[in-house]
Amino acid sequence: MSSDNQWSADEDEGQLSRLIRKSRDSPFVPVGIAGFMAVVSYGLYTLKSRRDQKMSIHLIHMRVAAQGFVVGAVTLGVLYSMYKDHIRPRLFNVPKK
């Protein structure tokens, strides 16, 4: 039986250390976050110079670009994980962790 008043290291972990730990496990997550922020920042920067384009169309284009960047980063992360777990051990006879 486990007690409710026991603590674990995960509860005392700060946000920055948690982000660093997660980025070691999945290295493309910070790439996706950075790309999303870059697309959103660029979209806000170009908001003034959209000329005769409607606001809703501009926002839809920026949303699609940001989502596309995140989906691309997740796809690359999955491919890297598949390579690391399945392809590299077969090609180079690397033992699994």
From TrEMBL:
Q: What is the lineage of its organism?
A: Eukaryota, Metazoa, Chordata, Craniata, Vertebrata
Name any Gene Ontology BP term: mitochondrial respirasome assembly
> What residues form the membrane-spanning segments?
28-47, 59-83
State the protein's name: HIG1 domain family member 1C isoform X2
Q: Which organism is it from?
A: Phyllostomus discolor
Q: Where in the cell is it found?
A: Mitochondrion membrane
Q: Name one GO cellular component term.
A: mitochondrial membrane
For this UniProt record, give its keywords in alphabetical order, as a comma-separated list.
Answer: Membrane, Transmembrane, Transmembrane helix
Occurrences of domain HIG1 (ranges):
1-92
